Amino acid sequence: MSVEPWASPQDQAAAELSHSEHRDTPPSQDQEQRPDKLCLDSFWSEVEHIKQGSGYADLDCSRRDSRHAEVFSEGEQEEQWLVDAGLSTLISEDSEDSEDVDKAALLSTLTRTQAEAVKRRVETYTLRKRNKPPPRDVRDIFSSPISQTLLPESQHSEDPAQNSMASVAKSPLSAVTPEHQRGTPKDEYFITDVAYCEQAVIFLKQAKLPQNNSQRRKEDGTLPRVIFPKCRLGVTRIQDLSHADMKKVRQLALIDMTALCDLLELEVKRHKTGKRKNPESPLFGVPLATLLENDQKLKPNTLIPLFLQELLSFLEKKGIDSEGILRVPGSQSRTKLLQQNLEANFYSRQVSWDEVSPNDAAALLKKFIRELPAPLLTAEYLNTFSAVREITELKQKLHMLNLLILLLPEPNRNTLKALLEFLSKVVFKEKKNRMNLWAVATIMAPNLFLHKAVPSRLTEGGEKGQAEKAADVMRLLIRYQDLLWTIPNFLMSQVRRLNENSNRRYQFYDRRFKNLLRKIHTDSREKPEKNSEPHRTVKIQVGDLDSGTMDFQLNLNSRASDLLAQFYRQFLRSPENGKGKMRRNGSVAYSDCALYEVGGNIGEHCLDPDTHLQDLYNSNPGGEWIIKTRPNGSRGL
After folding, report:
1. Which among 155, 301, 551, 559 is least surrounded, fewest beta carbons within 10 Å?
2. 461/366: higher pLDDT
3. How many CA atoms are closer than 13 Å to the CA of 606, on its beta-carbon side?
4. Which of 376, 370, 454, 451 is nearest to 413 (CA)?
5. Which residue has the higher pLDDT, 7 or 604?
């Protein structure tokens, strides 16, 4: 098992700035355990600025109005939760057989703790809607013939997730990590093979044992290196999956996140996204989805607003070395004139950035985020992001943030990623700009966690603890962003099982032949044997090579990178330095190619170069392997 330490923002920035002539040595941010007085003063100055400017003067009144109009009513919150989790038919009186099968397929993938979270939501909904005709009892759903047939045998005997978790429970995490792969005592190991809620169950049990109390890492404000044991199927990042599979990931992530909140006793209320008038500005106060839709007409496949791309690009070139960037306020009059100029001339490409002050541009960046009609972290999940600061253990904080990132709508998630990547570059240049990780986190936290559409406790007094907790969540988002934008292995396994169960749905339409069809299906299903598949045919869909094929010989050590290397040798002439376009017999193909698995128990999955192909074949024998050009942004922005 290979172990990959997740790159810090400093490491990311170093890679991106490696071509520059002069490089600063990144300081050790983790030595600063608490924000200094300047950071905390800047935090509350930013809060006051938000309250007094840009329509926030009457923030308390806005909060009252939003609380009255946009909070889910009793029972409505559970109902919306079941809709988002893909389980709305659990409370429907007239569900069809096909919907029962879809519902049972999803339920069959859940661990015990996840299933209990679903039951609690249905039971709470039933109690709050007692005056209405009662929905079907959730216990009937879990014990129905369809569900019982779809449930894997492990659900009736031993849950595989529970088995994996049991091995972790018998000894501390360091004990299940090979000795030569262990880091310093401060290192954290991030396991994603087991559902986060199931890990919390074991952790809470261990925490109650006196002899295990010493295993808990005391929260001292430092941020350790996080080690991710890489599984043989590689790492799956968010944009590696098809939209259909990502929808299932979000449903399962919502269930696991809710189960984790239940275990940690975090009571989180969701808010509705309020309806707002169409803004007069083409840039500010426009919903992200609308802004992107308009921009994609000009530049297809763009992932973040063009205005934000240009603003961040300017700040990276001209502002990243400015002392106090983000903290030192720009001129209000100049910032207002700059905003008016951009609103009038941005899309006509008549805006000149030559005379723009970096501090004014930074102020405009924060204003753009604040004036979004809904929070960047969304009205639905802003309070849940805020609740992360109440969690004690670092790994559980990261578990929650990982799941919350998966739940964000795609425009919000991509925009947040672009913002965090810029902030990590600011931190990297601390020696020039005097903005360390705490400074950047404390100044940006109010801009993300305060929004007039959602009530917040952040403005209730100037306690040091409030500032530190809010900044701590922001600090985690910046520091561990690369880790947070991955899909945990347990969710990938659940998606594969869900697709397999859904593909077998035809068996259940005629109950009389259900068992017979199940036996026939099982007997006829392709079962790969070890070392029985020395070759695999790979389709090629790259430029003029479309519809071509190549054979690849598998062995235990074959990786996706090996297959791609053979493809380059066999079909393409590599250019100097491996960049640019590659030509063969007059045809043109692009160098940014990737291997995908398509079909079987997955929709479409862009593979990590370190994926072990024989393990992939055993995991999804019915899938095809295709080499094609990677879309822009498929492995990051």
Report:
1. 301
2. 366
3. 22
4. 376
5. 604
Cα 592 off chain centre by: 24
Which CATH number is associated with domain 527-629?
3.10.20.90
pLDDT in tens, 235-278: 999 999 999 999 999 999 999 999 999 999 998 778 777 666 66
CB 514, CB 508: distance < 8 Å: yes
Listed in order, strand segments (DSSP E) in 331-413 are: none
User: DSSP class of residue 223?
Assistant: -
Q: How far apart are CA 475 and CA 56, in angstroms?
A: 25
Judge residue 548's burial from the number of C-beta atoms within 10 Å of its C-beta, 0-12 exposed, 13-18 middle, 19 or more buried. Answer: middle
Give the residue among 322, 319, 288 at the shortest CA–CA distance from 306: 288
Question: Which backbone phi and psi does 597 adopt, to 5 degrees?
Answer: -105, 135
Angle between helices 437-449 and 464-479 (to 10 degrees): 100
User: Of 345, 384, 316, which Cα lies nearest the Cα of 84?
Assistant: 384
- Contact call for residues 135 and 122 (beta carbons, < 8 A): yes
> What share of the chain has pLDDT > 90, as a percent?
46
> In terms of residues, how long is the chain?
637
> Which residues make Cβ contacts (< 8 Å) with residue 371, sequence separation at least 6?
54, 55, 284, 285
Domain boundaries, the chain: 3-63+274-486, 527-629
- The closest alpha carbon to 56, from 581, 595, 456, belongs to 456
In this structure, the number of other CB atoms found within 10 A of the CB of residue 425 comes to 20
* 360: CB partners within 8 A, 6+ apart: 330, 331, 334, 335, 338
Task: State the helix-helix crossing angle for 160-169 and 196-207, rounded to 10 degrees.
Answer: 30
Cα–chain center distance at 543? 32
| Pair of tokens at residue 323 | 């002392």
CATH homologous superfamily for the domain 3-63+274-486: Rho GTPase activation protein (1.10.555.10)
Task: Say how far apart CA 129 and CA 507 lie, in whole Å.
Answer: 35
What pLDDT, on a 0 to 100 scale, did the predictor assign at position 106? 85
DSSP state of 276: -
CB neighbours of residue 469 within 10 Å: 17
Per-residue pLDDT tens digits for 331-362 = 999 999 999 999 999 999 888 999 999 999 99
* Interval 577-611: pLDDT, tens: 344 444 444 444 446 899 999 999 999 999 999 99
Report the b/e string of 304-337 with b at 16+ CB within 10 A: bbbbbbebbebbbebbbebebbbbbbbeeebbee
Assess contact for 603 and 249: CB atoms under 8 A: no
Closest among 293, 315, 317 to 306, alpha carbons compared: 293
CB 266 within 8 A of CB 393: no
Using DSSP bridges, classify how beta strands 226-229 and 3-5 pair: parallel, antiparallel or unpaired: antiparallel
Q: 475, 459, 452: which is closest to 46 by C-alpha?
A: 459
DSSP conformation class of 630? P
pLDDT confidence bin for 42, thresholds 50/70/90: confident
Q: Is the pLDDT of residue 63 over 50?
A: no
Chain CA centroid to CA 257, Å: 12
